[in-house]
Amino acid sequence: MLQRPTQTAAFWRDQFEVTSDDLEFLYNLLLDAQAPKSREDLAVALAGEYLRRENATIETELAKGDIYLPKESYAEGQTLVFPALDFAVGDVLSVRDGQNPEHGKFDVIAVQLAGEDAPREFAAALQTPHRLSEGGGNVLLDDGALLSAEEIYSLYNDDIDDSLLFALEEGSRREDFVEVEAQWLLADMLAEVHIGHLNIAEALIEVAGHPLSAQTMLGDLDLDENVPKTMRLISLNHALNKDKRFDTVEKDGRTLWYLKRMEPEVVGTTPALLRYTPVPYNRSLLSVEMLQLEWELDDEWGESSIVGDVPALVPSTSFTLIYPHRKYGTIPLSSRTKSFFPRQERGKSLVTLVDGRWGTRYEGWVAHQGRYVSGLGKWMDDHELPVGAYITLERAEQGNELIIDFRTRRAKREWARVATADLETMRLTFDMNKVKVACEYDDTLIVAESDPQALAQLRQAMESADDNLAPLVEQIVRELTGLNPQGTVHAKSVYSAVNMVRRTPPGPVFYALISNPRFKDVGGGLFALA
After folding, report:
1. pTM (2 decimals)?
2. Res 463 pLDDT > 80
């Protein structure tokens, strides 16, 4: 039977490539629609066009003669089309009786196919079943088993999308097509947005002091009213996206625009102490006890297989505050917290965080790729929260708000490991000193700093140093075991101290503890010098 290319995986995976004719088809599609279309809409339409072209080709070929079917009878001089031979066309030269007891009475026709030197012979008037006779000629054009354009895209969307996006973004007609908010349209459909319009948009946002939507700004920009309003909005969004002064922010499901220079510094550029550069280590060496501690810490960069995201139906969650987040007034997007915030892979979102004690509202910036939420530095300072504090998040009645709180208790001074940066030896030293604490906290995590500026200099120097974590862990273990009369240190304390100068999840730290023969695991998460 005829194998239609559009019905094969080999065609879409290995042979499909968007051509200039395909781009012309997509251009006319968008021109006729006078509205943007998604990448999927374009891909399905293009797959449908391939089906249409294939049918048109088959119809043209079939019109050149009668379809050869083994069950039919033919006469000398008759022109036949052979779909199974790639629509070869030939004239019947002669008809004779066939001789084969298995098939009974039938004819043998000699056919001279175009382009071939010698005639070929075929069976005709065949009374026994033959697969080429099934369904007759109409089955080539009307086959219910054929894949539709939608089904083709669902099966081969990755391959189709790769070719389509390359043609739209890098092809010879890339200037004709524009993508705005995951929708494609023609550049000619856009309203003109010049530098003057963008300067006004900048001023509007600056005066407002908060992100604005394109809809809000449109009335003040005087764009060409001959262009439909929908297209004016799309045009403005496209122009703002191309201008490096502006940044998109999602809030309550809406896309807003803000000025990058007005964003909090920790939002515009992720601080080094919140960025994790993965280091290789052998996770199989981590004991069950170490994996349990990793789960308890729930570091946003951790990779414990035990951890699963907290479901969106859970009303509240809690986590412990580590030094990098206390330093920059951020909270982690970890498995326990991420479901409380908008879900995106990239970009930024805005949320409102409400102080559970005083009711003060804070604007939280969700940096999805950086895996943190910023904007809580003042809240942490006002409540004098230490590293190791237990923080709670609770869903509010207002869907766009979250309540952030801590577990309060009577204020008193508690012992804490206080770090000092020795810039001469490039080491981190520790002493035990008392700090004021007015909340419940994890005493294995609590650390403080004696000189923030010196510690910042040490961190900066360590950024360009060897990325081997083992020497840093060993140096800190020797410091911290010296503070304990029992000569031990908890693995979580080492993790907390390491994160004062280098961002790392628990796994690599725990591996550096377990794999170092100079350390002895004495149980309960404690280590001593061997």
Report:
1. 0.74
2. no
